[in-house]
């Protein structure tokens, strides 16, 4: 191995290493996400049935509210495991005030969604922090979460039925818009304020 290769490996290791600052920021993101999840769950209890009554499957348009922090946390922290870490904390915070959903199931959902986002950025070895990669993360989460819902919640709904097709399309739209576009522009907006200047992600935003 050449000296240049050794330096590159050391640089990559340093770039991906978690610092106390990353852990603290991730915890804060998880806490805020958990509060968003809790509030969204309360609103969903009456919004989702209404949307379903109007058009079965349309409620999936808002599902991205429950997984946009996966991509956002990776954009901000730029560390392997960031989405999983933030996702676990968010569920723990969400259940503190009380939650009508099955706790083990929503924890599994959070981890599965986070791993999908990790895969999108991991494909590029956690080096490509672009809008395209973020949208890819949203698409992967939407596809897997849609399959998860059909397998565990809507067993009587076929993927190729009208309800299944509408739900899948709406889920993909939600993934692209909320977990992709909204996460990206929210990250850029936060970074432009200087709040992320101590992180590499914030420094990149401010340099543009």
Automatic annotation (TrEMBL):
It comes from the Bacteria. InterPro entries: ABC_thiamin-permease_prd (IPR017195). Keywords: Membrane, Transmembrane, Transmembrane helix. The chain crosses the membrane at residues 21-40, 46-70, 82-100, 106-124, 131-153, 165-187. This is ABC transporter, permease protein. It comes from Bifidobacterium mellis.
């Amino acid at each position: 191995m050449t000296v240049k290769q050794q330096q590159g490996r050391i640089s990559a290791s340093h770039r991906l290493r978690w610092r106390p600052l990353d852990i603290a920021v991730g915890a804060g993101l998880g806490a805020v996400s958990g509060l968003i999840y809790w509030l969204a769950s309360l609103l969903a209890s009456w919004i989702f049935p209404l949307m379903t009554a109007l058009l079965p499957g349309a409620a999936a348009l808002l599902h991205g509210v429950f997984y946009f922090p996966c991509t956002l946390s990776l954009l901000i922290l730029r560390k392997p495991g960031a989405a999983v870490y933030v996702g676990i904390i968010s569920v723990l915070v969400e259940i503190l005030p009380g939650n009508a959903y099955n706790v083990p199931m929503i924890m599994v959902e959070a981890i599965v969604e986070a791993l999908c986002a990790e895969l999108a950025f991991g494909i590029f070895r956690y080096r490509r922090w672009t809008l395209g990669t973020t949208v890819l993360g949203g698409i992967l989460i939407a596809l897997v979460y849609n399959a998860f819902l059909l397998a565990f919640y809507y067993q009587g709904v076929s993927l190729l039925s009208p309800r299944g097709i509408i739900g899948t399309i709406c889920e993909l739209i939600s993934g692209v818009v909320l977990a992709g576009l909204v996460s990206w522009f929210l990250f850029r907006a936060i970074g432009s304020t200087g709040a992320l200047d101590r992180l590499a992600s914030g420094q990149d935003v401010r340099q543009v």
